[in-house]
Amino acid sequence: MAIKTLGQFIIEKQADFPYAKGELSRLLRDIGIAAKLVNRVVNKAGLADILGQQGDINVQGEVQQKLDVYADTQFINALKMGGECCYVASEEHEEGVDLSTNVTSREAKYIVCIDPLDGSSNIDSNVSVGTIFSIYRRLYADRPIQKEEILQVGRKQVAAGYIIYGSSTMLVYTTGCGVNGFTLDPSIGEFCLSHPDMKIAAQGSIYSINEGYYSKFPQPVKQYIKYCQEIDSATNRPYTSRYIGSMVADIHRNLIKGGVFIYPQTSNHPEGKLRLMYECNPMAFIVEQAGGKATTGKIAILDIQPQLLHQRVPIVIGSSDMVEQVESFYANH
Ligand code: AHM
Ligand code: MG
């Protein structure tokens, strides 16, 4: 069977846009290269001295894992070397990394928001982790990077994607013309097109939420959990509960099988836990492009005007009918 590599696919897509100069293609290529480097280390995490904690606390007040720091360094270095990115906002840095003063990136047109290694607390137990990225266009070429360029609304994303380091490693991305998934073939070291034009079913039978926090959830979410557990053969309930605790893996599974992932407000995290700029927005863009929905329970994630780089939001994301069911509980509350 003929294979199509990520590189070939990107070039082919670029040809659809006659005026494209190849900058976004090169940026995606740079991310793909860093992903392979991170994958190599994640794969031998039990062997290399890379497991465990780095000893530092990141901007979120969370303990940084060694692999968090490694992945962050690899992606930033790849973006720096590639010269197509002028600014990187990362989960691991309080302030973004301004590359626009580097000679190679002075003319760069893109801003990247990234969670280099999401779900990293799962690594020590060999559970899937991921990378999530979001790409925006720089608005003003003639001045230093402005705050409003970094805090653009999710609808302005030019591209977004994730890498899942799982039983196989996959890169899934969108540039706003559907979603395509590539599986890393370790024997040739290439991401190969394996999931063209991914679509999420309008209705699934999986709900994913950390039910241990049930007593801390808002009423509409409690109601929805009870709804999922009720017996109703007409709507195929009760649904199955699946929660890995690694956002990329949970959403990827639901994308493939149909389902809804919820991380709502809790009493510990009154704004929600997951970050808008580099977790929720890119996942929302991908899921919408696959035909699904992503909201806070009230408004579309992609319509939220960001105020802060590390802003948190509640999220309900996945199969459109399931997301709408959750929204109806919020609306009636
Ligand atoms: P991280 O960015 O610190 O890794 O945290 C994000 C992760 C998500 O991958 C996952 O969905 C969530 O935290 C799990 O949180 P909880 O353990 O509260 O269910
Ligand atoms: Mg994260």
TrEMBL record:
Q: Which residues form the Fructose-1-6-bisphosphatase class 1 C-terminal domain?
A: 200-330
Q: Which cofactor does it need?
A: Mg(2+)
Q: Does the keyword Protein biosynthesis apply?
A: no
Recorded hits in CDD domains, A to Z, give: FBPase
Cofactor remark from the record: Binds 2 magnesium ions per subunit.
- Give the pathway listed in the UniProt entry for this protein: Carbohydrate biosynthesis
Q: Which reaction does this chain catalyze? A: beta-D-fructose 1,6-bisphosphate + H2O = beta-D-fructose 6-phosphate + phosphate
Q: Where does substrate bind?
A: D118, G119, S120, S121, N210, Y243, K273
> Where, by residue number, does the polypeptide cross the bilayer?
none
Leading EC class: hydrolase
Q: What is its EC number?
A: 3.1.3.11
The record lists Mg(2+) 2 as bound by D115, D118, E279
Entry's localization field: Cytoplasm
Subunit relationships: Homotetramer.
Family membership noted in the UniProt record: Belongs to the FBPase class 1 family.
Its protein name is Fructose-1,6-bisphosphatase class 1
